[in-house]
Design a protein that fits this description.
The chain is 81% helix and 0% strand. By secondary structure, the protein is an all-alpha fold. The protein starts with a helix and ends with a helix. 38% of the residues are buried. The mean pLDDT is 95.
Amino acid sequence: MSFFARLREAAGPDWTAYVEHSFVRQMQDGTLPQAAFRHYLVQDYLFLIQFARAYALAIYKSPTLGDMRHALAGVKAILDMEMDLHVELCAGWGLSREDLEKAREERQTMAYTRFVLDAGGQGDLLDLLVALAPCVLGYAEIGARLAKTPSGSDPQNPYARWISEYASEAYQDVASGFAAWMDRLAADYETPARKARLEHLFRQASVLEADFWQMGLDGA
């Protein structure tokens, strides 16, 4: 069993509550209020800024040059590609770059992103990746699952592009690479004494991800 699979299993209902949240189910069947999705998109843009900082922290926390290069690739992918792609997606929903940049961070956005940065600041690279994993790997799981459903794969579904983005081979490869990176680090740095802390970090991050979905719904 992979390190991620063990964390996922240990998280139990908290993981399920995140990946099967009402926000996700409503995206799947196309019934999610568009105002909720717009609110989510704005906050997700602000989240990406902090996500880039987390990958920058990963460079500093990296024990090897190979880890540093892996983390640097993550920073470049976010700043050079993902941010622009997100702006393009938002434009399709009537949101300009100016709308995104002047938005205020909701407390749920701050709660998760600062939790991740704190986990990395206090711990090592493995702690940081475990705190990031629900986002990176959860979106891959959600996208792949929704894309396999008739409503999720329907081009008429207003959320089809979001679903296809995270179900895409490109994103699934990113997620697989991230999981493999965690596996390598866990092989070297996971100990029985750390098991409970790592599981707690992953579980708490999953709860905060579910709160992020709920923030989208509450903003409708």
